[in-house]
Amino acid sequence: MTSQSRPDLPGTYVFDGPTSRRGHAMNKLFMSLVSGSSRSEFVADEAAYCARHGLSDEQTTAVLERDWQAMLDLGGSIFYVYKLAMMDGLSMQYLGGVFTGMSEDEFRAAMLAGGRTDV
Length: 119
Description:
Layout: E1 5-6, E2 9-13, H1 17-22, H2 24-32, H3 36-44, H4 46-52, H5 57-64, H6 68-73, H7 78-87, H8 92-100, H9 104-112
Antiparallel strand pairs: 1-2
């Protein structure tokens, strides 16, 4: 399964209703990480926490392996996925780099220069 793409904007990820439904359990898990006690539970046993939230095997693997692209492909919202990245001390610019094939520094520099020029 891969991220959907808009035909008029190739490579543009579309987070729509079906995608939202597909990722509902995973996004609820990510949102739960705003609570300190939930973060502690997650860190204590990530696999068990995923199971308690009803993640599919694919979603659990993506979370445990920090496969950021797979999380989006499986219905993750970037805004919720970022909550997990923050737990790992990662920035939004890091994720931007992952999703565009750039390093964090390259992505940051591209944004400071006015945005991506490769599209």
